[in-house]
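Methods: example folding runs. The two proteins below were folded one after another, and each record is reproduced exactly as written to the output file, sequence line first and structure-token line second.
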Amino acid sequence: MFIRKTPTRYHSINLVRLMVKKFLPFSMVSFSEFRTFIGVLDQKSELNNQLQPGSIRKLVVKIYIGTTSSLMKKLRKEISVTPLAFLHINVNLWTSRLSKDRFFGIQLFYVSREWEVKAVLLAVRHFCPSGNLLPGRSLSDILQLWTNKIILEFNVSYDKILSSTSDTGSDVKRLCSVLIPESWEWCLPHMLNCVLVGAFGTGLNCVNIRNNGARRLLKDLKKVIRHVNKSSVMKQKFKETQEKNNRKRLKHLSDVSHG
């Protein structure tokens, strides 16, 4: 019924969903090539008239509200019948290598009625707190304000949050300790990374290295790889040796830097 009565709006919403999913810029709708393409599909030009950057932003907000509402209903229904009436959250604060912008994300975990662990991404927000929040507050205090807002937005009760996970960053670790005292646990990939750094002596601080033997071995291997990469003669010998021993050429990994 919705499609028949408002086909233009229906197609606009689907297009916006595609733009969000594929990280396409809103300004794309202003490109002449895009408008020509849409004009071929829509001879009446109704869709072209509606697709403006301003209207796209409004549709994004409406789609977010609708998606959030559906997710909240699903969460309430599944959590109400879960055999374990406790939740777990994972918090992350990271910096984009390209833009240097910081982002804050929260995941919620729970056990379904069928005893399956379910994960829901509640939010990924551009972390750029306003100036009035900064004076007199630590970064972890501001993160707690943001966490509270997201948790309350999805009507999640703090009483049901049993534990939390993060990396060992002081800000997010303190956030979890303040928010849910004595319930912080290691993120397994981050813990494994720290274990391997300690085991192979690849930490940036040479003074605190506990396995100098492994560190020296890795440095010697790097020298060999670097020499092969820089020498055309060694590259050819390396290729011939691989073909002789393996009957095919294997991929030659480049030198990977460590501290």
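Second run, written to the same file directly after the first:
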Amino acid sequence: MIKKLHNSPSLFSSLSDMLNQSHPLYKLSDKIDWAKFDTAFAPLYSRNNGRPAKPIRLMCGLLILKHLRNLSDESVVEQWSENAYYQYFCGMQEFSPVAPCASSELVHFRNRIGEKGIELIFQESIRVNNEYDDYHHHDTAFIDSTVQEKNITIPTDAKLHKKIVGKMLAIVHKLDLPLRQSYTFVLKGIYRDQRFRNHPKNRKKALRADKKLRTIAGRLVRELKRNLGEQSLYDELIERFEAVLSQRRNSPKKIYSIHEPEVQCIHGRRIMLIAGQTCVALFHQRSLFKLWNSLASSAASA
């Protein structure tokens, strides 16, 4: 059941009379269309059954404050009871020294409204932002680029060849294709020889194992390509495997990851990053758009 906020004027001094009307949160609270949230989220509550829930404006206001101030659920609930502007922003008429709700109720509210509800709150923030930006930044685009970290391991040729062998054998077993040799025991010996490669005594043995692993990976790719035929769902993956096997130390446009082929080696001033470069464009014209493009060419990060 929904609990409503009573906006009737108080006989005593209210927050609207006590606070500075030039404060950003005071102005923002008057610009946001809170009735839109009540209309959209009211059907998610029971009208007559259960204990009255927290007001919708209170929960939406806490979510907005959480992202405005970059706070956790616990911090925004704790600071709400100490900040009069927070309380006025959430629709309170009088100052309350107690916490508005438990931090877990924000989690339940996010689960209740779902992804569409979060998008509705975000769209309203865009609308409020554009009232200012459309006037001051009409037909203006802000463009920037940054380096985006990728969830990959440190790339080495031996690791890539080992992944190729594993994926090839998985495809063979999945499709039940014939295989002249599974290399089960051979691969165990190769992986054993590749260990402790930094030790001087094991260096040459590890290099021989790397070369043999690359040969086996090439054999499996060629054999799988013959068995699958010309038209296959794995054509793109096989082409990527062939590109990895054919690349050398100084090859241009190297592939550093099987599942993230767009990853690049970006040289900075003192460091070298294996990551993706992303371009962000913000347009202030009626609505706000974000374009995320992974740059294909390597560029030096500032």
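Comment on the second run: The chain has three domains: 15-136, 137-155+258-302, 157-255.
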